[in-house]
Write a structure and sequence with these properties.
Rossmann fold; alpha/beta; 5-stranded parallel β-sheet
Length: 384
């Protein structure tokens, strides 16, 4: 099996490198790819490779060549060796690496440009441009959305983990006068109690019991109707916020949503929003949540991309591969526009670019993504 994998990788490299022997003139664009083509994440690596082949097919320019190299996983030596191989073939611009922890290594190759799908920092870092869906772009979209919905008492729910300080540092850069940060424990057993405190659940529960006692000993029809209405409630009184932004995802996000619903937060009055969503349909199974809003890439283009990928490769792509798809389109645009690419400064231009993920632009050496707001409701995603 191992020999078959080696043969397959060799074939892939040969396929992408065909006609490279005579491309020394400036009419050719050579783009390197750093991807884990072996090891634990090799399926992601080949998904990235397949994505670039789709982009290459759409560009349909025989002067553009992709040169993939196996960067391994958490292997600085292999990564460095892969970059040196690309450099030896006069590759100036590279898509990758995937992990921002590899940035210190690629910064050593200052005469090369790296376009990474990482979302850690939207600002240019020396010779690196991160094109991932940044936290900054998502927050800007949410803040604008909440403002349009006339929400002015927002709670930012932030899990306590190794990224807490990092996120807090990013939040400090925003004007959050009407926002409050509430940090919670990701352990579901602890989380519920913390959300009860946030929502003043115990007091609202007592408010209901006291109100019910006012009508329990009365026999008039009005009191009976009031008691019937109160029996349908779990608490009495509103929470002191009108919207939440949950900085979480996966099962932890679902735990927070469940706790908010359990503590009887009125979803007609409080907007539930979140970040870091890729149209995860498992959220539909959280049937206690009526609506969940979040910023994201263009859903129609994302669906079309996945369908095209599946039609071609009989498999579904990893989500971040759409970023590398757009990365090649962006590189090609700059190359055709300028006739060459010398440094990251070539990517600082006025105007907007439309890609599969949506519209994005560059300003002051920073990438800005114009994200849409989507609503997960009634088992479907709807652009809001």
């Amino acid at each position: 099996m191992k020999n078959k994998i080696i043969i397959f990788i060799t074939y892939i490299l040969f396929f992408f490198n065909s006609n490279l022997l005579s491309d020394e003139n400036n009419n050719f664009l050579k783009v390197g790819l750093l991807a884990p083509l072996s090891g634990e994440y090799k399926s992601l690596g080949f998904s990235l490779l397949h994505s670039l082949q789709l982009a290459l097919n759409e560009i349909d320019d025989k002067n553009v060549h992709i040169i993939p190299r196996d960067s391994g996983t958490n292997n600085r030596e292999k990564l460095s060796s892969a970059i040196k191989e690309l450099k030896s073939q006069n590759v100036k611009i590279v898509i990758g690496p995937i992990d921002n922890e590899d940035f210190e290594e690629v910064k050593k190759f200052s005469n090369m440009i790296f376009i990474s799908p990482s979302n850690i920092n939207p600002e240019f870092q020396n010779n690196i441009i991160s094109i991932g869906i940044s936290f900054e772009s998502q927050m800007e979209a949410l803040i604008d959305f909440l403002k349009k919905q006339k929400k002015n008492k927002t709670i930012i729910l932030l899990p306590k983990n190794k990224y807490t300080a990092f996120i807090e540092n990013k939040l400090d850069k925003f004007d959050l006068k009407n926002f409050k940060i509430f940090k919670y424990n990701s352990d579901p057993k602890v989380l519920t109690g913390e959300i009860e405190i946030l929502t003043n659940y115990s007091q609202r529960k007592r408010n209901l019991e006291l109100r019910k006692k006012m009508f329990e000993d009365k026999d008039d029809e009005g009191s009976k109707r009031q008691l019937e209405l109160l029996d349908q409630k779990y608490t009495l009184g509103d929470v002191n916020f009108d919207s939440v932004i949950i900085i979480d995802f996966g099962s932890s996000l679902k735990s927070v949503l469940t706790s908010l619903v359990f503590t009887d937060v009125n979803q007609e009055k409080v907007l539930f929003t979140t970040v870091n969503q890729w149209f995860d349909e498992s959220i539909f199974y959280e049937n206690t949540v009526k609506s969940l809003y979040y910023p994201s890439i263009n859903y129609k283009e994302f669906k079309r991309y996945k369908e095209n990928y599946f039609k071609t490769y009989k498999d579904f792509p990893s989500e971040i591969t759409i970023l590398t798809y757009d990365a090649l389109g962006l590189i090609y645009y700059i190359w055709k526009k300028n006739g060459k690419i010398n440094s990251v400064n070539d990517f600082s231009f006025k105007g907007k670019i439309k890609g599969k993920i949506g519209t994005f632009s560059f300003n002051n050496k920073k990438i800005n993504q114009n994200l849409n707001i989507y609503r997960a409701e009634n088992n479907k995603f709807t652009k809001f």
